[in-house]
Amino acid sequence: MSRSSHSSCFIFLFLSLFLFSFPSNSFAGEIEIEGKQIAHGGNGSPGSIACMECHRLHGGGMPLIGSPRIAGQPRSYIEHEILGVREGTRYAPIMAGVVSHLSRKEIRAVASWYAHVRAPKMPDVSPPDPTLVPLGKRIAQKGLWKKNVPACVLCHGPDGRGIPPHFPYIKGQNKSYLLRQLVAFAFLKRSDDPQGLMRGIARRLSPKERQAVAEYFSSLAPPPADGLPDPKQ
Ligand code: HEC
Ligand code: HEC
Question: Which of 90, 91, 160, 182 fits a disulfide with 156 by CB distance 3.0 to 4.6 angstroms?
Answer without folding.
Answer: 160
